[in-house]
Amino acid sequence: MINSNWKIMLLVFLVLTLAGCSGPARILVQVERPPTLNTTGIKRIAIMPFETDDSAHNVLAAYATSMTASRIRETGRFTLVDASEILRLRRRNQNVEDYVDAMFIGRITRASVSNETKTTAGWTDNKGRYYPPVNTYYTAVEIEFNYSLKMARDGRLIGPVSKKGVASAQSGDGYPDAEGLLRNALTSQIATIRQDIAPYRSTEVRTLAEDKTGISGVKEEMKEALAHVKAQNYKIALEAYLKIYEQHKSVAAAENASILYEALDDAEAALSLMQKVYEDTGNPTVQAVIARLNRNLADKAKVAANKQKEEQKPVDRVTAVASEEIQKILPGNAVVWLYNNSPGNTMVDAIVDNLTAEFIRKEIGIVDRQNTALIEAEQRHHVSGAVSDDEMIRIGNAAGAKTIVVIGITGSGAMRRLQVRVLDIERGVPIMQSDTDKKWRL
């Protein structure tokens, strides 16, 4: 089945094709857009049943739940977890975080039906035939609903997004089916859910500008460039428009070149060109083009940044945070002992390894683990419970360290986070302690 976005693109294409012989020329441009809701890091979603304050709308709520699941599945970005599994875990007071990242929750807040009858008066034609009155039955519906994503980790809500759908129909044989119209109104709004939860590419129409300089010969050159556009020889047309601008400073030619850069998926070049045009001409109309390109590039950068975050594992993410924070307070001649305060924890092992590699690349002195391995083993054999700062400082001093970085994990579930403390051996005092900010969460 063709989804709604492709239907829209097809419709736009047909309109432009039919209009190709008259009016200004147009080009379709693909633009990357981030979703309305920040779903970065969310992979597993449970579609919880839509709620409603009116039991008369329970069937509509069930329909909304089913349609939502279909639309989210079509994005291909998420694994759907059955809501019954979440309900089962909750009944047993179990943590759902191991099974799902977020719950999709929705509520129908209003559904109204309006019926109206209009009667056409009876009449008699010129042959004396009588036509009785005719009733036309009109039904109009409105439905309002909202939805959010509830994070399994900490219960934080992302959203809500509010929607309003309308539909109407008429019949000469009684009022149209209100329930069917309400479903249609719901469908039209739920169809846009992809744009709320996943990045997407939007198809926009750009209208080519017409030169108004009145310079002799420019009109003919613009006409030749346009012929290449219509033949979809975009690169040749681009070169032609750039040449026209360089020779005649035609802002229209530059704007058309920027549109072709966009069509060739090079919005950065389009922006660079239009900034140069503004510097050259000071034409105020160029500012609107620059503003549009800046918005589009900002959206593109946001999509790329979110993708990078999604591809980054939690261990790599917190390692980067720890490395940055530690290096802020390290002295220039630091010799660091990275002490694993959670032995046997594979996450901490990985973080220590990552930090070791990072510090070596940055030419920060690192105490060889062989220098501390026997000392740490002896310490764990003789000392019961947590190792004190004084004992760690003694060990680090014996191993030739000047700074100790103590790395461990504290908490569990939603509160699990990396804990980092930095001790100055010479002064015998802590000089850094990680806090409870979410950037440290694992």
SSE-based structural type: alpha/beta
Task: Quickly name the level 1 CATH class of the largest domain.
Answer: Alpha Beta
* Annotation, overall tally of beta strands: 15
Overall structural domain count: 3
The global form is: flat
Overall mean pLDDT = 87
CATH A-level architecture of the largest domain: 2-Layer Sandwich
Helix content bin: 40-55%
Strand fraction equals 15-25%
Distance between the termini: 41 Å
Report the total helices.
Answer: 14
Helix and strand run:
HEEEHEHEEEEEHHEHHHHHHEHEHHEEE
Largest sheet report: 6 strands, mixed
- The CATH topology assignment of the largest domain is Double Stranded RNA Binding Domain
Low-confidence segments: 1-21, 381-385
Descriptors:
442 residues, alpha/beta, Double Stranded RNA Binding Domain, Serine Threonine Protein Phosphatase 5, Tetratricopeptide repeat, Rossmann fold, 3 domains, 6-stranded mixed β-sheet, 5-stranded mixed β-sheet, 15 strands, disordered N terminus
Short account of what is shown:
Helix content is 45%, strand content 25%. Helix 6 packs antiparallel against helix 7. The longest helix has 27 residues.
General description of the model:
The chain is of the alpha/beta class and 442 residues long. It contains 14 helices and 15 strands. Strands 2, 3, 4, 5, 8 and 9 form a six-stranded mixed β-sheet that branches. Strands 12-11-13-14-15 form a five-stranded mixed β-sheet, with helices on both faces. Strands 1-10 form a two-stranded antiparallel ribbon. A hairpin with a 6-residue loop joins strand 13 (403-410) and strand 14 (417-424). Helix 7 packs antiparallel against helix 8, helix 9 packs antiparallel against helix 10 (285-311) and helix 11 crosses helix 12. The two termini are 41 Å apart. Residues 1-21 and 381-385 have low confidence and may be disordered.
